[in-house]
Amino acid sequence: MRKLALVGSLCAMVLCAGSVSAQDPDPSSPEGVVLAAEARRYKAMIEADVAGLEKLLADDLRYTHANGSVETKYQLIASLEAGNLDYQAIGTREVTVRVVGDLAVITGVAELRLAVRGVRSWAHLLYTAAYRKREGSWQLWVYQSTRHPTQP
Q1: Is 78 helix (H, G, I), strand (E, B) or coil?
Q2: Is 152 a member of any domain?
Q3: Which of 60, 77, 129, 148 has CB atoms 3.0–4.6 Å from 124's, for a disulfide?
Q4: Domains in the chain: how many in total?
Q5: CB 11: neighbour CB atoms within 10 A?
Q6: What is the DSSP track for 104-123?
Q7: Is 125 part of a structural domain of the chain?
């Protein structure tokens, strides 16, 4: 319950802050640095790079997939390691990032090619990713996606 209240507060703070479209952010700006972390996370998920994900995912990560299933950092990494979840391509568009202090929220549209337990699929999603800065590094803290209204 405390985490839910904290995430609600985070969203309220960030919605009141300015936002930056991800089209060409200054790479040295806070928004650019967060988006670079997001790009590294996508690459690590596609490559099932456990060492990379260990650094990019917060220990208390809550990762909610579009089908409603929820995983922790360790469950997500285990799914990738075992091959139960195999991201083959991740693309994004309409990305916006908002940064307030050590918290950031990214929203956008994602297109994924993946296999779940060996069954190939694709997904067209709307997503929200909340990052938190810890010891100088941005880590994914909360992720939630839902099917895009145009996906059958």
Answers
A1: helix
A2: no
A3: 148
A4: 1
A5: 16
A6: EEEEEEEEEEEEETTEEEEE
A7: yes
Domain span including residue 80: 2-147
- Residues 86-101 as b or e (16 or more Cβ within 10 Å = b): bbeebebeebebbbee
List CB contacts of 31: < 8 A, sequence separation 6 or more.
20, 22, 25, 97, 98, 99, 104
**Token code pair at residue 118:** 């060996």
Contact (Cβ atoms closer than 8 angstroms) between residue 149 and residue 69: no
Q: Over its length of 152 residues, how does the chain's per-residue pLDDT go in tens digits? A: 444 444 444 443 333 344 455 556 788 899 999 999 999 999 999 999 999 999 999 999 999 999 999 999 999 999 999 999 999 999 999 999 999 999 999 999 999 999 999 999 999 999 999 999 999 999 999 999 999 988 76
Q: Can you read off the two tokens belonging to residue 34?
A: 């967060």
Q: How far is CA 23 from CA 36, 95, 96, 106, in A?
A: 13, 8, 9, 13
Q: What is the amino acid identity at position 49? A: D
Residue 7 has φ and ψ, to the nearest 5°, of -65, -40
